[in-house]
Hints:
mainly alpha
Amino acid sequence: MARPIRETPILFGEDARRFLAAMQERRPEPPEVRARRLRNYEYMKKAYELGMAEKRAREEANGGVDPCFRKV
Length: 72
């Protein structure tokens, strides 16, 4: 059985000031990292679209029911 999730601690004093300063600091994303992230996103998007096209084709061929995803 899972344990309950603890509450998020509240920051006070110097810890709170450091946290706020870190949140205000802008760290721009390098162009190489951005390009890799966008390339991965496009790859996953194409894989999803291909999978959905195959699923729709199976449903169309089987009268609206996808045999690979039968409800139990």
